[in-house]
Amino acid sequence: MTPRKKTLKSLRCPTCGMLVQPKDEDFPFCSDRCRKIDLGKWAMGVYKIGSPILDPEVLEDLGGFGGGGDSGDE
Q1: Which of 4, 22, 59, 71 has the most CB atoms lying inside 10 A of its own CB?
Q2: Which of 34, 30, 36 is CA-nearest to residue 12?
Q3: Contact at 8 Å (CB) between 52 and 58?
Q4: Alpha-carbon distance 24 to 14, whole Å?
């Protein structure tokens, strides 16, 4: 059998779509500007992680926030 060559997959900056290399300083982004744009989107709530919280301790801590506990409005 002949050894297979590893093929490099084309990777693109998630912000602007420009081609990037894994060895680039700002990987996976093409520049510091695109990195900051992405960070701003996380900070503004544009991106969200959709997996449920399964840790019981975290659920307990969050119980007082957003309708999980007793509101006292009777």
Answers
A1: 59
A2: 30
A3: no
A4: 14
What are residue 41's phi and psi, to 5 degrees? -65, -40
Task: Please state which of the four CATH numbers 3.30.50.10, 3.30.70.270, 3.60.15.10, 3.30.390.50 is assigned to the domain occupying 11-48.
Answer: 3.30.50.10
Token pair listed for 33: 């500007």
Instruction: State the DSSP H helix or E strand holding residue 57, giving kind and residue range, or none if neither.
Output: helix 56-62
Q: Give yes or no for a contact between 28 and 45, defined as CB atoms under 8 angstroms apart.
A: no
Tokens of 8: 């490099």
Beta strands 19-20 and 11-12 are antiparallel
Instruction: Tell me the pLDDT tens digit for each residue of 5-42.
Output: 666 677 999 999 999 999 989 999 999 999 999 999 99
Given a contact cutoff of 8 angstroms between Cβ atoms, the answer to whether 11 and 21 are in contact is yes
Amino acid at 49: I
